[in-house]
Amino acid sequence: MSRLADREAQKAAAARSVPEAQTFKAFDVPVIVNRERCIAGCQICIDSCPVDCLAVDPATGKAHMQHDECWYCLACEIDCPKDAITVKIPFLLR
Amino acid sequence: MVTAKAVILCCGASGRLGLPASGYLYGTYENPSNAGDGYAMAYHAGADLTGIECFQINPLIKDYNGPACAYVTGPLGGHTVNALGHRFIESDYWSGQMMLEFYRELQSENGPVYLKLTHLAPETISEIERVLHHTERPSRGRFHLGRGNDYRDDLIEMHISEIGLCSGHSASGVYVNEHGETSVPGLYAAGDMAAVPHNYLLGALTYGKICATSALAFIARTAEPRLDEAAVALESQRILAPLSRPTGVPHHQYEYKVRRLVNDYLQPPKSGHRMQRGLAAFMRAKDEYEELGAQNPHELMRVHEGSFIRDCAEFAARASLFRTESRWGLYHHRVDYPELDDEHWFVHVNIRKAEDGSMQLYKRPVEPYSIPLDRTERRGYHALRLGDANAAARDARDARDARDARDAIDAGVPEARA
Asked: Is B151 within 8 Å of B8 (Cβ atoms)?
């Protein structure tokens, strides 16, 4: 076996057993929370979201979209007592 | 862990099976919180599934998961047209045959297909918007505005939805009898995951009550269950395992891959060779599932949903391969078996988990019709396509429909009468 082919065989075997590594990308998210209006401790939007994509941001104590998993159903926007939420149609659909 | 004498599953459709054309994982027609959890749980508990090969496919707005005509715009005079502005189907109400005609038009030189409301009176359009944009899909108006489309002036481009499993829209679900009982004693199913075709919301509520009544009777005659501690420990281990792999493959990549393969291999028209390739891919995905990792409870939930989605993909492939004929229009349109074959296939197909853990498929006879159908009724779906010879009559009828719809609105809307 040539040296190059031998190296490829070794790397191909390694590619099947090497541990995973991860990277992180920013996403343009559809649910925008106005932090000034949002009430710390209020969980109404988090509870009304059918797909569990909102959460309290530990940094601010306010709600934010933690996962880009929106059904753009507007439940959070409609239920927010402070009118602090605006839902955009997700970028992939706009 | 919760022990229960009886369990009623009401987990909705398998809505995250196919991938929407937009590529957005959660842009599904069905509520994406329903990942086929009920189908997978019932199956693994030993319950029969049925009608899985009769997929759910909907005519939707292109890129947006809002429906088109069937039950809101149709009755008020809206309809589907091709790129020439001509109607091509007799009825816009959803059926597999309607979807097949829709698919053919979409693929033809006259595609794409549009929702047409431009011929309607302004107050009729306002009424349609009130229902579609406030009740049906509250963000739909926002979508149209973003694209610069207005029903008054524009035709709205339509497309075919991703596939799903849903008893309400097709017939795919957990097999239940008239008491809501699955084939496992003490296990009941209601709503879109229970095979009661055209159930919808009212059916879900009705069957929910039927299931509850049956379950209460079952509970009254059943002894307190004993918790099997060893089984609980094993199950906890299985459920929490992805948390021990925090840098494992993320759930969304796994889900994207499985659902992309569902589109590649299962989206009708179906073919045996293609679905065999799909089945092989879904079996590979069973091994790949062990590579998934989670860093928090939310991700753990999504990882498990990945297994439900994969299970449903396997059900869909196996049931579709089993039925070697075409039936229900596009829902089970096999190019390798294009004909309806009542002689061999006027039956239901059930799936169950065999003793050895393999997936078993078998034919279940159709119960006698409560109301006999005559021949013309049984062939009604095959007369859906409009021929050009009907163009003049169609145009006259469209004009009359529009007038009738306007009259109907006038009668119901005070400001229109004023």
From this structure: no
Helix/strand/coil for B415:
helix
The DSSP letter of residue B334 is B
Whether ipTM exceeds 0.85 = yes
- Which of A51, A89, A92, A94 has the most B C-beta neighbours within 10 Å, making it the best mutation to test the interface with B? A89
Q: Which CA distances in Å does A21 have to A11, A63, A82, B247?
A: 16, 30, 41, 7
Q: Which of B328, B299, B315, B288 is nearest to B38 (CA)?
A: B315
pLDDT at B398: 58
Tell me the pairing of strands B7-9 and B187-189.
Answer: parallel
Q: Are A93 and B22 a contacting pair at CB < 8 A?
A: yes
Contact A67 B298 (CB under 8 A): yes
A51-72 burial string, b = 16+ CB within 10 Å, else e?
bbbbbbeeeeebbbbbbbbbbb
Would the CB atoms of A71 and B247 count as touching at under 8 Å? no
SS3 B86: coil
Please give the model's pTM, rounded to 2 decimal places: 0.91
Percent of chain A with pLDDT over 70: 99
Domains annotated on chain B, with CATH:
70-159+407-418 (3.90.700), 229-344 (1.20.58.100)
CB B63 within 8 A of CB B72: no
Chain A hits for B37, CB-CB cut-off 8 Å, are none
CA distance B257 to B274: 17
How many CB atoms sit inside 10 A of residue B124's CB? Answer: 25
Domain A29-94: CATH architecture, name and number where available: 2-Layer Sandwich (3.30)
pLDDT in tens, B110-136: 999 999 999 999 999 999 999 999 888
Please work out, in degrees rounded to the nearest 5, the angle formed at the alpha carbon of residue B309 by the alpha carbons of B201 and B172. Answer: 45
pLDDT band with cut points at 50, 70 and 90 for residue B402: low
Residues in contact with B175: Cβ distance below 8 Å, sequence separation at least 6, in sequence order: B47, B48, B49, B50, B182, B183, B195, B350, B364
Strand partners, B49: B174, B351
Neighbours of B191 (CB within 10 A): 27
Token representation of residue B133 = 């944009």
Place of tokens 């297994």: B307
Structure tokens that stand for A78 in this block:
């409609």
3-state secondary structure of B43: helix
Kindly state the tokens that stand for B238. 């299985």
Query: Residue B416 in 3-state DSSP?
Result: helix
Q: Report residue B106: phi and psi, to 5°.
A: -60, -40
Share of chain B above pLDDT 90, in %: 79
CA B251-B27-B295 angle, 5° bins = 20
Cα dist. A4→A10, A13, A14, B134, B336 in Å?
10, 14, 15, 64, 46
Radius of gyration of chain A (CA): 22
